[in-house]
Write a structure and sequence with these properties.
The complex is a heterotrimer of chains A (276), B (334) and C (362). Chain A is globular, with a radius of gyration of 20 Å. Chain A has a single domain, classed as Ribosomal Protein S5, domain 2 (2-Layer Sandwich), CATH 3.30.230.70. Chain A has 4 helices and 10 strands. Chain C is an alpha+beta fold. Chain C has 7 helices and 12 strands. The chains are: A alpha+beta (276), B alpha+beta (334), C alpha+beta (362).
């Protein structure tokens, strides 16, 4: 049962699809007029498409009721088949991120329900490819639904690739990290590069994958960084991994992307919605 | 080899499905089951410890040679407040027995199978009469047994024997009472450990229940129908039997019981096999007496474990002499 | 009739403040209880540890009779049992064996992606299959029955740890035709599939670290029987007399989990701390934590020669293989750097203890 109506009339069905530029994701706001807030998000390179719907504050089941907080429920629905452990983990990760963003004390004893449907994905079992689109899409639909939030966040997925060669479909997404006192002898081809929004093919040749989520103020909301080099394991896996210094540099870059470019994407998407 | 439907709450093997390893052996060196080296009226050493799990009301850990099991008691706690929950004047007891996937020769799944459910209901019968359930109205008490290791059929169940070049794919035939003996030892252990855990939880009981198991064996020829006349004289009762039968013997029947020594009452009795009171003999009574004797020896261990635990609690709650630890305590008021 | 008599000795004082015993305070106000402890100088947790101190642990390997490898780890009041069991996967004639020999098999086409998801819906895994069971009555808080969110998340995290660290050489799990050791792929008749089952016996926080340590120790203790393809019977048989260890990584990474306890502004908070990071939280602390950080790292073998008392240098070769931080917003980049150093010293301790265990088998 709906306790409160944020929008007395459903918002006009208008798709504010952004012009596809190589860096920006494709965002469609309010594709589902019946829900309080909804959003469809497509990653520019991997074409991972997520559709989320947010409803709330709703009446909460007595079992889940919290006396001075709103209950947040996140359901991730897979593109193929029924949900498994991977989807449960994805919803746990999104839930813990939203818990620190949504002001749950504003609507105690209510339910804020988020349903995220994976519409299209290159690899339906890959956590790194799904997490960033899921988070960004959820945050946009929360803004549309008018759920009170402490701040907004944005997520970016970065992959460290050994060389530019063999990386396809991610044009305009490649950058290099500055090395302090790094070898000037290194040739262009062998130098490590960072690819933004990698697709499945890029990820399979990558050394590591980093999903970084920052708030507008530059606080770290979520880090999901993992070594992802290929191999048959055993002794060949010895010595893999990265140095913490490299990671910190990458995190700084991720922070810049989220706080500047990510916020710009949100601002443009919501330009005429008077959310800010 | 067709794979079952995947479990969507767990990680699954490749869709091809897997099979347990099958061993190859030549019949000349057929694996002889290990013979028990102890006399028939002797029982294995029991290791029993209570209160090892801090986050539950009561717990115990029991080890009898290969058998290892852990028991947790949750509750008494209120029944869930749903419209379908009926009023309960007495505490509702639930018992669950689960083998770990690696507890037996053939890997078990996570979903409880029929033998686990059967053990659970027998454990329920053994305990339900001993607990003073009327003292805990509108509440539930849950007993959860996890079996980590057990004496099972052994690797030779999956063994294929070769005879002079030609392979006979035939698993070796084992005597019929094997599974009952294996389950009986497990059940007796479950009963003993569960009552130790209930005592650790401080749940009021009429008496501690201890489990006992005994098997009646006869000479191998007798079971084939010959020499029925002297069957009585050759009967061998083995307390706490091992999986392998004694040399040249065939099992007749196995008896498992839950026994309250102080009240001399049997709370659960399970006999399987061919035994009766035919020809005016007291075979069955003798078998039950043997099982009671096994339960009595388990009771001794149970008493010791309970005493140890009470002493521990008394020592802990008694005002301790001032020590160095006191000074690091932080003043709490508000 | 009761009359209030004035105490002659006491002056015009206030009634005594409401006070609670320590154990009562612990029960009724866990957040405040924890904060007061951490604001004490030096900061001490209710369990007596300092914020960066982890629990002592014990390790026993190969104590189960039916598992091919096993380990029991007890860290404080968290106890897990890990059993590893090998089963045989027979390769069908048309199969490409190479699909089994990769941890991150990333299907590129949509049809392939459908294949990995089987008809039943849930995804199928690889040759190493970890699972966690919490429905063992390990804690009051965890309900019995099918795995809930925590158990499912843990199973997936452990699966990811396996895929990230690639501990087992998958090529060493091959089963060939006959005793030949030819590495020709046509001779591959099957694979060993390793079921890793972790049962939590007692749950008192930070189960991930204990479970991962148990898995590593159990993998090191695993011995599989020699298996080969029998041409007359056309099936795979094992030799019960000969066992071999599996081919593993030499340096294992270990996870270290930290929890962040928020500290609100209060008169006691003179230092103005916003939050305090604690290593290896127990479940009492986990309930109050708003942020969890897990670092998976290896320590170079050279750094642990000096003994546990010597902390690894900041510049030593510590390789990080996974960082996960979720919930909250207070952990900064500098804190991650500090935690990495703590994680490295814990990994060194684990590695050293594991080597000692290998030398003195149970």
């Amino acid at each position: 049962m709906r306790l409160q109506h944020r929008h007395p009339l459903p918002p006009p069905l208008r798709h504010s699809t952004m012009a596809p530029s190589p860096l920006a994701p494709e965002i469609t706001l309010c594709p589902l007029p019946q829900s309080d807030g909804s959003c469809q998000y497509t990653c520019p390179t991997s074409r991972t498409t997520i559709l989320t719907s947010v409803n709330g504050p709703l009446e909460v089941r007595p079992k889940d009721e919290l006396p001075n907080h709103a209950t947040i429920e996140v359901i991730v629905k897979p593109g193929i088949g029924v949900a498994g452990v991977r989807e449960t983990r994805l919803s746990t990760l999104i839930h813990s991120t939203l818990q620190s963003l949504v002001l749950t004390t504003h609507h105690p004893r209510t339910l804020i329900q988020i349903v995220a449907q994976i519409v299209q994905a290159e690899d339906h079992t890959s956590l790194p490819l799904l997490l960033t689109p899921l988070l960004n899409c959820t945050i946009l639909s929360l803004l549309i639904a008018g759920i009170p939030m402490r701040t907004v966040g944005w997520s970016v997925h970065l992959a460290v690739v050994q060389s530019v060669k063999g990386v396809k479909g991610v044009e305009g997404q490649i950058f290099r990290l500055e090395k302090d006192g790094g070898d000037e002898m290194e040739t262009e081809e062998s130098e490590e590069v960072v690819v933004r929004n990698p697709n499945s093919a890029t990820l399979s040749s990558a050394k590591s994958s980093h999903t970084l989520t920052f708030s507008k103020e530059g606080e770290i909301l979520l880090i999901e960084s993992l070594e992802c080099s290929q191999g048959g394991g055993g002794e060949s896996a010895d010595g893999q991994g990265w140095d913490i210094g490299d990671f910190l540099k990458l995190a700084e870059e991720g922070k810049r992307i989220c706080c500047e470019e990510g916020m710009e994407v949100i601002r443009e998407a919501l330009a005429d919605r008077k959310v800010f | 080899m067709a794979a079952r439907a995947p479990d969507r709450r767990r990680n699954n093997p490749p869709s091809h499905g897997t099979t347990p390893p099958v061993f190859l052996s030549s019949s000349s060196e057929a694996v002889k089951p290990k013979q028990p080296s102890r006399p028939a009226d002797d029982v294995r050493k029991i290791f029993l410890r209570t209160g090892l799990i801090s986050s539950v009301t009561g717990s115990s850990f029991l080890e009898i040679a290969p058998l290892k099991l852990s028991v947790s008691v949750l509750g008494p706690r209120p029944l869930p407040r749903t419209s379908s929950t009926p009023f309960a004047a007495q505490a509702i007891l639930t018992t669950e027995v689960k083998f770990a996937p690696f507890a037996s020769t053939v890997r078990r799944g996570y979903i409880r199978d029929s033998s686990e459910r059967d053990l659970g209901s027998r454990l329920y019968q053994a305990l339900v009469g001993a607990i003073r359930r009327e003292l805990y109205p509108k509440s539930r008490i849950e007993v959860v047994v996890t079996i980590l290791d057990s004496e099972d059929e052994g690797d030779d169940v999956n063994t294929v024997y070769i005879e002079e070049g030609k392979t006979t794919v035939e698993t070796k035939f084992w005597d019929s009472g094997r599974a009952e003996r294996a389950l009986g030892v497990v059940l007796a252990g479950c009963i003993t450990a569960a009552s130790a855990a209930l005592a650790d939880a401080g749940i009021e009981m009429f008496d501690l229940v201890s489990g006992g198991v005994a098997t009646a064996f006869v000479d191998e020829v007798n079971s084939k129908g010959k020499g029925k006349g002297d069957a009585v004289s050759n009967k061998l009762y083995v307390r706490d039997p091992a999986i392998a039968p004694p040399e040249g013997k065939t099992p007749l029947a196995t008896c498992v019981l839950g026994y309250m020594a102080a009240r001399d009452e049997i709370s659960e009795l399970w006999i399987s096999g061919k035994i009766g009171t035919k020809n005016g003999t007291a075979e069955m009574d003798e078998l039950v007496d043997e099982a009671i004797a096994a339960a009595r020896s388990a009771r001794g261990v149970l008493n010791e474990a309970a005493k140890e635990r009470v002493q521990f609690i008394v020592d802990k709650t008694a005002p301790a002499p001032p020590s160095k630890g006191e000074s690091t305590d932080i003043e709490m008021s508000g | 009739m009761a009359t209030l008599t004035r105490q002659p000795s006491s002056g015009e004082s206030q009634p005594p403040p409401l006070t609670f015993s320590t154990s009562l305070f612990r029960q009724i106000s866990p957040a405040l209880y924890l904060q007061r402890h951490l604001l004490h100088s030096p900061p001490t947790r209710p369990n007596g540890r300092s914020p960066s101190q982890c629990r002592d642990f014990t390790l026993t390997t190969n104590s189960l009779s039916h598992a091919h490898g096993s380990a029991v780890v007890r860290a404080g009041d968290t106890a897990v049992v890990c059993g590893i069991r090998g089963e045989i996967l027979t390769v069908a004639p048309g199969d490409d064996p190479s699909q089994f020999e990769s941890y991150n098999s990333s299907p590129t086409s949509a049809t392939h992606a459908c294949g990995t998801r089987g008809a039943g819906g849930a995804s199928w895994g690889g040759l190493v299959i970890p699972n966690v069971e919490l429905s063992t009555g390990c804690s009051k808080k965890y309900p019995l029955g099918p795995p809930g969110g925590l158990a499912q998340t843990l199973s997936d995290q452990l699966h990811e740890l396996i895929n990230v660290t690639k501990p087992v050489s998958l090529a060493s799990l091959r089963i060939y035709d006959g005793d030949s050791n030819l590495s020709s792929t046509t001779k591959i008749k099957g694979y060993w599939c390793l079921y890793i089952d972790v049962l939590c016996i007692s749950l008192d926080g930070n189960i991930l670290d204990a479970a991962w340590y148990a898995i590593v120790a159990a993998l090191k203790s695993t011995n599989l029987p020699f298996a080969s393809w029998n041409q007359t019977e056309e099936r795979i048989f094992c030799d019960g007399a000969r066992y071999h260890p599996i081919s593993l990584r030499r340096s294992f990474p270990f996870t270290t989990t930290f929890a962040l306890i928020p500290i609100p502004n209060s008169p006691e908070n003179s230092a103005g701390e916003a939050a305090i990071l604690i290593n290896d939280p127990d479940s009492y602390e986990e309930d109050e934590a708003c942020e969890i950080l897990t670092i998976l790292s290896t320590t170079d073998m050279g750094t642990i020669q000096g003994g546990p008392s010597q902390p690894p240098l900041a510049g030593s070769r510590t390789r990080v293989e996974k960082i996960e931080k979720r919930g909250g917003w207070k952990i900064g980049i500098s804190q991650i750097e500090i935690c990495t150093q703590l994680a490295a010293s814990k990994a060194a301790r684990y590695t050293q203890y594991l080597m000692k265990e290998q030398l003195t088998p149970m």
